[in-house]
Design a protein that fits this description.
Blueprint: H1 12-20, H2 33-37, H3 39-42, E1 48-51, H4 59-65, E2 69-74, H5 77-86, E3 91-95, E4 102-106, E5 111-115, H6 123-126, E6 129-135, H7 146-155, E7 157-170, H8 184-191, E8 195-208, H9 227-233, E9 237-246
Parallel strand pairs: 1-2, 1-6, 2-5, 6-7
Antiparallel strand pairs: 3-4, 4-5, 7-9, 8-9
């Protein structure tokens, strides 16, 4: 699939190009607030975590500092390089043998970030994990790839593991994605076949309350230069977390 900005799709080269150009408004300058909110729940005996489409998120540092073995995958090598350099973590790099890509590892091997295609990840390559930490990764995936994405993550999840997913719900008329607007019905329709789903409403970040009706026709995406400006134009904006376990 090729990149189609108007249609809301990005291929691997499109994502790498965004990192090369510094168009990374989606990157957060701190770790997700949900980590501290659910800290007691997350810090169980089994502490291995996998972050799909991890970029250079500081969630990695939070998990690392709390004793987790952290793995992630990111197609843009620049993002992984910046993660290690900006956090002053010495790393070693090796080429992957079974799929195209590289593995960046901290010296203590507790952080392992794969520069590879998300859909190339297998248990044989990277193992299976106690926690899948999907902090707005599903919302970045092209709609046509969603089931393949879920199947990949199911294969990387231990049978008794937990899958935490963060979504965004906004008026899709103002921005085609990514990130895509994913209200509850989208999460349920894509995940309910494989997962038990718990909506963690206590963790909601309601930036703008969703109205019962919308009278004004929103301006289309081409009127906005950034996702932030589109979010500001949306009549509603909600960040929501879900906790899922395998059926």
């Amino acid at each position: 699939m090729s990149t189609d900005a108007v249609g809301g799709t990005l291929d691997n080269d499109g994502w790498k190009n965004m990192w090369d150009k510094g168009e990374t408004d989606f990157h957060q300058s701190t770790f997700d607030r949900f980590l501290d909110l659910r800290k007691a729940e997350l810090l169980g005996e089994n502490r291995s975590v996998f972050l799909p489409l991890c970029g250079k998120t500081l969630d990695i540092i939070w998990f690392y500092n709390h004793g987790f073995k952290v793995s992630g995958v990111e197609i843009a090598e620049l993002a992984v390089q910046q993660f290690f350099s900006e956090n002053n973590i010495e790393c070693k790099v090796e080429s992957l043998q079974t799929v195209p890509g590289k593995l960046y590892k901290s010296i203590d091997n507790k952080i392992q970030l794969y520069v590879a295609d998300m859909f190339e990840m297998t248990p044989e390559l990277c193992g299976q994990f106690d926690i899948i930490w999907d902090s707005k990764a599903f919302v970045a995936i092209n709609r046509s790839d969603r089931q393949k994405y879920i199947n990949t993550l199911v294969s990387l999840m231990k049978k008794e593991g937990r899958y935490y997913l963060a979504s965004i719900d906004y008026d899709p008329a103002v921005w085609p994605g990514p990130p895509h607007s994913c209200p509850d019905k989208v999460i349920v329709s894509n995940y309910s076949g494989r997962f038990n789903i718990e909506i963690l409403k206590d963790a909601d970040e309601v930036m703008k309350q969703k109205p019962e009706t919308r009278e004004e026709t929103p301006v289309q995406k081409h009127e906005y230069d950034t996702i932030q400006s589109a979010f500001q134009a949306s009549s509603y904006l909600l960040f929501r977390w879900y906790k899922m376990t395998l059926k």
